[in-house]
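Supplementary notes for students who missed Thursday's class. We covered one full example, reproduced here. Read the sequence, then the structure, then the short commentary at the end.
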Amino acid sequence: MPVIKGQKSESEKFAGALRTYSIEALMGDGRALQAGTSHNLGQNFAKAFEITFQGRDKTVQHVWGTSWGVSTRLVGGVIMTHGDDSGLVLPPKIAPYQVVIVPIGRDNWREAVLPKAQEIQQQLQAAGIRVTLDERDERPGWKFSEWEMRGVPLRLEIGPKDIEKASVIIARRDNREKISVSMSGLAGHLLQLLDDVQKSLFERARTYREEHTQRASTWEEFTKLMETRPGFVIAPWCGSADCEARIKAETQATIRNMPLDGKSPGGTCVRCDKPAAHEAWFAKAY
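Structure (token representation):
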């Protein structure tokens, strides 16, 4: 999940902290998600709760505290970043199952196909691939639909004709492509495919973010962009909390952060025309 790392404004930082840093991600609906935070708490909380230590010079000092927040919201972030109308699309590195094997055949598929499917399952497990075998007595199409909804990165289909040809059909969840793959060296081929799916999902999300990141130098441009949910809007900001509050009240957009590697702002604030102090990333957010 690609993110923008930067420092929060004084209004958006953690209450009582000296500084707050965050990573901000863009969801598929154009809203931003604060994916994680790091707070430099200074000594404020240590003084309030009398948390001390003895320094090398034998003096008693208050500790300098930090707080880190990366939580289960990342689960929702992954769903909203990569999912589609058919359900989940899970990156292989975090998918509970990376491959699902679906045997295909007529009434005798348990005798004709299942043993080979079980053999392949064991080979993939030995190669370190998280794999499950769907042995349920359901129609293949029904199984395909359910595993798509669950977001399993790769679906392996095997039937009597595939066994005759010593091959299997692989379906990718990210782009729905289907390819025929030889059973010889299958585990190695699947590992390469999983790596490709992982990279493809990340690049697709990053491309989406780039396509939905725009710049505004005037208030007219800014408000026009914020009429919908365009994603990130980069704009110069004077650093005033009052100006920041007016922007939020009038557009519902907040400063997500000011990137650590951001450019020098130059020009004037997008809202008040005072000299710009920061280049801020704005968005409507969760």
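Commentary. The longest strand covers residues 32-42. The mean pLDDT is 94. If anything here is unclear, bring it to office hours.
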